[in-house]
Specification:
Blueprint (H helix, E strand, L loop, with lengths): L10 H15 L14 E5 L11 H19 L3 E5 L1 E2 L3 H16 L3 H4 L1 H25 L10 E2 L3 H16 L3 E11 L4 E3 L4 E15 L2 E5 L10 E4 L14 E6 L2 E9 L11 E3 L6 H10 L25 H14 L3 E14 L7 E10 L5 E2 L5 E2 L1 H10 L4 E2 L2 H12 L4 E2 L1 E2 L9 E4 L2 E4 L9 E2 L3 E2 L1 H6 L1 H4 L8 H6 L2 E7 L3 H15 L5 E7 L2 E2 L16 H8 L1 H9 L8 E2 L2 H24 L2 H5 L6 H22 L3 H28 L4 H22 L4 H14 L21
Parallel strand pairs: 1-2, 3-4, 9-11, 17-25, 24-25, 26-27
Antiparallel strand pairs: 5-6, 5-14, 7-8, 7-13, 9-12, 10-11, 14-18, 15-16, 19-23, 20-21, 20-22
The chain binds one RNA strand through strand 8, strand 12, helix 7, helix 10 and strand 27.
Length: 722
RNA sequence: GGGCGAUUAGCUCAGUUGGUAGAGCAACUCUUUUACACAGAGAAGGUCACAGGUUCGAGUCCUGUAUCGCCCACCA
């Protein structure tokens, strides 16, 4: 027996070497897998941020996917798991800008676009290996020969192609729209980068002709000409829709126009409001509805425009008090109340968001187009029907409800972003002319300065990673993918967009099943965050307890779609399990001989019952895994190995092995060996390192014949033992 | 405000066609017997949030209440 079994299992001495063996074997690439494999199984990895490091959330994702992929590979599927990294455009650019500001005191405008992009690429070069090395440390059996990066040449070209195709189909258009403008960062930001801060402000009640209007933002009110109330509000029954009213306002007399709209809340304030379409989302929609003019009051730096008269050029925060003073002097302030509300601020700069109207690019989700199968549909209908038909299924049913609710209410998607790092919009302008193409049409043409929302390219990910728009073998074999696995928090951003993009460009679903895992929280159920300092680094934990322990600790008790908790104690517990397996192997190796495996035996009743119990476990574990309930399968195999195999079968066998019945001894040895082999196979997807290490000892050092030869990684998943 | 969940042992959670309540940690008792003390044996611990209903039978299905959580939209 190998001397290494005389001491406890030592992960740090084995893991890196084992991973190297797997990688050198080439079996991560399905093209190299041995045997006849008629069916394929493919997953794309949700690409982690290229500049990031592994956290427990991504560790959980890698563990789940690797477990499924290893299981399918052992079952005989031609199994492909595609690795990749994401440019995380906004986050990465912000990070590099911050570094440059700190080191050189320069802004991106000082550097210029080409120089900033060069710096970003250089930064990514220095950071990208960190995350890739950490994925390897996890034991992830990813096919590195197919590695993709969202901004590499192949993917960039595919994104351009996709944009142009959708433009040609009439689904991409340019239009005005309110955006979240961050005056401090001089950029538009997406809804999910907004942080709402509770703030104590004043609610001003102002006399607006015969009405009293409540506002927390008097500085936006200069251009307000429309006064809106509910049509059923009896207090204002005397005023007719579109009635004109002369009244005195901040900078003199104006003509106001009454609008009756049922969207007004009669209960709030006085039930009357004026609207500022340029700087308020809801007001913008009202203005669109009634085709009202829109006027800009605040400029891109947060200062008042000439429409504010004497206040022009002032910052809004400074102007507010002065405007109120003036209104008060004119007797237009009715009263002032304290008011607590949520204010939108930019996550990165901390600046107050100022809604502004800008020209943006959109995807139209309600316009008809001709689908690949010749039928007419809209993106929104296609996205809804795909799920209602069952072409895509959610492993956890409640997410289907969420998805459908979201998809049915889908609005046009704003895909342009005012940053520099990303897939630049392939549109060129010269005067009033516009051309949609990748390369410059010639002299005097200037490219649109915006880049695409990162979710645009992400939506294409399942097929750009397989070589699209070329009609590659990979695309034919591996698309649609079998499964997407991610956190449920990106359902609307990513999962839905993949269904949209794949449906439009390929006429197929991107994946057949959607598996959402929950958030990983700390031992007390709190979110993992930098400010709490409660992050548990999976790689650190692996150094202490072994990656196998980290992996199985993450997935034990983790029902799909439900948040789970992880703490160091749990990981420590599963380190003990790894050692348990180690010692089971040691015991079996001490008792089994080569001939025990090669020759037939007559089994006792007890031996037969033990094999029956093993078979029952194989069936249960296989059934759970087929339903992607890897947590239940893990529980079953864990319980079997420790409390049935080790505590009962193995303990009982001691009596036989110490006895004198040689025939029974040989049969028992065969039984122990058979159960060990089968257990290792069932455990391998979960704890690939320790099981592979034991496997290699069984085949090499002990000289025992392995039915499957070579590596456990490609051994056949256990069938019921006859 | 709209939507979706959760509530089961001290803690974390399973419980898949309704059929005598389960696991892992933690705590308790005993045991150092060459696979493993990173262990074994044993005992303890629950009105399954609450109130109704359907049923021979409900943790499971239905209705309502309470508390907690998440997502979306945010009120001038």
């Amino acid at each position: 027996m190998d001397q290494k079994f005389l001491k406890p299992y030592s992960p740090d001495e084995t893991e890196a070497a084992i991973y190297k063996r797997w990688e050198n074997s080439g079996y991560f690439n399905p093209d190299n897998l041995p045997g006849d494999r008629p069916d394929t199984f493919s997953i794309v990895l949700p690409p982690p941020n290229v500049t990031g490091t592994l956290h427990m959330g991504s560790a959980l994702m890698l563990a789940i996917e690797d477990i499924i992929v290893r299981y399918k590979r052992m079952q005989g599927f031609k199994t492909l798991w595609i690795p990749g990294t994401d440019s995380a455009a906004i986050a990465t650019q912000a990070r590099v800008e911050k570094d440059i500001q700190k080191a050189e005191g320069k802004s991106r405008h000082d550097l210029g676009r080409p120089e900033l992009l060069k710096r970003i690429d250089a930064f990514i070069e220095t950071t990208k290996n960190t995350i890739i090395d950490q994925m390897r440390a996890m034991g992830a059996s990813l096919d590195w020969s197919r590695y993709a990066y969202t901004m590499d040449d192949k993917r960039y070209g595919a994104v351009m192609h996709a944009f142009i195709k959708m433009y040609e189909a009439g689904l991409i258009y340019r239009g005005h729209r309110i955006v979240n403008w961050d005056p401090k960062g001089q950029t538009t930001i997406s809804d999910d980068e907004i942080v709402y801060e509770e703030r104590k402000d004043k609610l001003y009640y102002l006399k607006y002709g015969p009405f009293i209007i409540g506002t927390s933002r008097p500085e936006t009110k200069f251009g307000d000409k429309y006064v809106v109330m509910h049509p059923d509000d009896k207090r204002y029954a005397q005023y007719a829709d579109r009635q004109q009213i002369e009244l005195e306002w901040i900078n003199g007399p104006i003509t106001a126009i009454v609008i009756k709209d049922p969207g007004v809340d009669m209960e709030f304030g006085t039930g009357v409001m004026t609207i500022t379409p340029w700087h308020d989302m809801a007001d913008f929609e009202l203005a669109e509805k009634y085709d009202l003019p829109k006027e800009q009051v605040i400029d891109w730096y947060g200062k008042l425009l000439p429409i504010a008269g004497e206040f022009a050029g002032m910052k809004i925060t400074d102007a507010r008090e002065k405007i109120i003073e003036k209104l008060a002097s004119k007797g237009l302030v009715e009263k002032i109340e304290d008011y607590t509300h949520n204010v939108a601020t930019a996550e990165r700069t901390g600046g107050m968001i100022e809604p502004q109207i800008k020209l943006q690019w959109f995807i139209n989700v309600t316009k008809e187009y001709t689908a690949k199968d010749g039928t007419k549909t809209t993106l929104r209908d296609m996205m809804t029907q795909t799920v209602e038909n069952g072409d895509v299924t959610f492993l956890v049913e409640r997410f289907e409800k969420q998805y459908l609710h979201w998809a049915k209410n889908l609005r046009d998607w704003c895909i342009s972003r005012q940053i520099w790092f990303g897939h630049r919009i392939p549109v060129w302008y010269r005067g009033n002319d516009m051309k949609v193409q990748v390369d410059s049409p010639g002299d005097g043409w200037e490219q649109d300065s915006d880049v695409l929302d990162t979710w645009f390219s992400a939506g294409l990910w399942t097929f750009t990673t397989l070589g699209w728009p070329d009609e590659t073998e990979d695309l034919k074999k591996y698309h649609p993918t079998a499964l997407i696995e991610s956190g449920y928090d990106i359902l609307p951003f990513w999962i839905a967009r993949m269904i949209m993009m794949s449906g439009f460009h390929l006429g197929t679903v991107p994946f057949k099943t959607i598996y959402f895992h929950g958030l990983v929280r700390d031992g007390q159920g709190r979110k993992i965050s930098k400010s709490l300092g409660n992050n548990i680094d999976p790689v650190d934990m692996a150094k202490k307890y072994g990656m196998d322990a980290v992996r199985i600790a993450l997935i034990m008790g983790m029902a799909p779609g439900t948040d789970s908790k992880i703490d160091e104690n749990k990981i420590r517990g599963y380190k003990n399990f790894a050692n348990k397996i180690w010692n089971i192997a040691r015991f079996v190796l001490e008792n089994v001989e080569k001939t025990d495996i090669e020759e037939p035996h007559t089994l006792s009743k007890e031996d037969a019952d033990d094999i029956t119990e093993l078979n029952r476990t194989v069936r249960e574990v296989t059934r759970h895994l087929d339903e992607y309930r890897i947590d239940l399968a893990a529980d079953a195999v864990y319980h079997y190995v420790w409390h049935t195999f080790a505590d009962q079968v193995l303990e009982r066998s001691k009596t036989v092995m110490n006895g004198t019945d040689v025939v029974a001894q040989r049969a028992t040895a065969w039984k122990l060996y058979t159960i060990l082999i089968t257990s290792l196979k069932m455990l391998h997807p979960y704890m690939p390192f320790v099981t592979e290490e034991i496997w290699s000892s069984l085949s090499a050092q002990a000289g025992l014949p392995m039915k499957d030869g070579g590596m456990l990684m490609i051994a056949r998943w256990p069938a019921v033992v006859e």
